Amino acid sequence: MTDEPLEREEHHFELGTDGPKVIVAGVDGSDTSLRAAAYAWGLARRNGSRLIMVHVAPVAAISTLTPGGAAAMREAGEQILAELRREIERAAASMPVRYELVAEQGDPSAVLARTADEARADAVVVGASAQAGHRLIGSVAVRLVRTGRWPVTVVP
Fold first, then answer.
1. pLDDT in tens, 59-104
2. Among positive and negative, which fits the CA dihedral 124, 128, 131, 136?
3. Is residue 142 exposed (0-12), middle (13-18) or buried (19+ Cβ within 10 Å)?
4. Strand partners, 100
5. Backbone phi, then psi, for 130, in 5-degree steps?
6. Is 0.90 surpassed by the pTM of this model?
7. Alpha-carbon gap, residue 68 to 48, rounded angstroms
8. Which CATH architecture has domain 22-155?
9. Quick one: three-class SS letters along 14-34?
10. Where does the UspA domain lie (predicted)?
């Protein structure tokens, strides 16, 4: 052995290059999801990131049992999606961000996780749940955190 010190690699942070490059944000039209979308938009703008906004219409079996229930749910989902598109276009006009809007039906946490995995996301942003039942079954945010493949930011 020699008494010479081992060479150490130096690591330097570079401003403007260390943030997330792909961000997935869940939006369902609720106040907390809209705040999460705004937070994700600002994060994407500041970091030059690609933003994937995901709207998941949950599939509700009960709505198919009532006459017109499925059609009413589909129409409500389309209205929320149209409003989200208007808000996104308004934001894009004043603060340009590379974004896409994905709309699917299914379990919100499963769709967000799949989308984040497929896009190789560096971060996931969702709004906090305001529903009391989520204390028992877990919110979308809790299920995403438990998945543990990306940092998850929960916006109140």
1. 764 455 566 666 777 777 788 888 888 888 888 888 889 999 999 9
2. positive
3. middle
4. 52
5. -105, 5
6. no
7. 44
8. 3-Layer(aba) Sandwich (3.40)
9. CCCCCCCCEEEEECCCCHHHH
10. 21-156
